[in-house]
Structure formats: structure tokens, C-alpha cells
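Justification of computing resources. Each target in the renewal requires a structure prediction run like the one illustrated here; the chain below, 133 residues long, is used simply to show the kind of job we budget for.
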Amino acid sequence: MKSIVTIFTILMFIPLSAQMTPEEVVQKQLETYNNRDIDGFMSVIAENISLHDFSSGKVTLKGYKACKAFYGDLFEASPKLHSTILTRTVFGNRVIDHERITGRNGNEGVLELVLIYEVDKEKIFKISVLKKE
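Resulting C-alpha cells:
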């Protein structure tokens, strides 16, 4: 009986690792994007990541290495980079963000996008990008 109580006591203090929801994964991606933290940003990106132009369906970026190179360069060239979420919808494993981005590549202008993030096992594996016409 004493050993059961001891085991139970030990188990009470072992933290349970709760899996992040798709929204939490995308929120972490947003926060690390705004901090221009490439390692934090890539921590929620899947090896088989692909970015797609929503309108044409074309793949615009494919693979972890290509993604890290692209965003690493973007973060380096954009000291004032910041994305603000205008609206967010969570639909199963998809998170749909309407974003307002400023400071991209040192530009003063505003870029408005809708991004559809698809998440599996705490990793973003597909991003579809809809640009405002």
C-alpha cells in the first residue's frame, strides 16, 4: 500500500504535457513572427510545409529549409515587421486569420492578407494565402 501511495504522489508532480490546439500553434507562430524569432517561428512549422496562393492554387514555397530561408531573410530585412490579427476563425484543424502586416522589407505600406493555416500534431503543414486585390 505504501508503494502505491508513493507512486501516486510522484505522478501528481509530473507535469502532463497538454497538446497545443491549432489556435495555440498559430498564435505561437504569430508571436514569434512579430518578434522576428526564426527558431521559435520554425518550431511550429512541419517538415513538409507548403505555402499556396489561394486564388491560383499554385505552391509558392515548399519544405522546411525553403521556409526557414525565406522567413529568416524576411525577418532580417524587416526590423519593424508586425502583423495584427483583424479577425480569427477556428474551424477544426484550420485557423483562418485576416491579418494586417506592416514593416515588411522596410516598407511603410500596409499588406492585408487572409491566411488559412492547417495544423497537424502541433505543426503547421499548409498555409493558403489570399491577397487583397
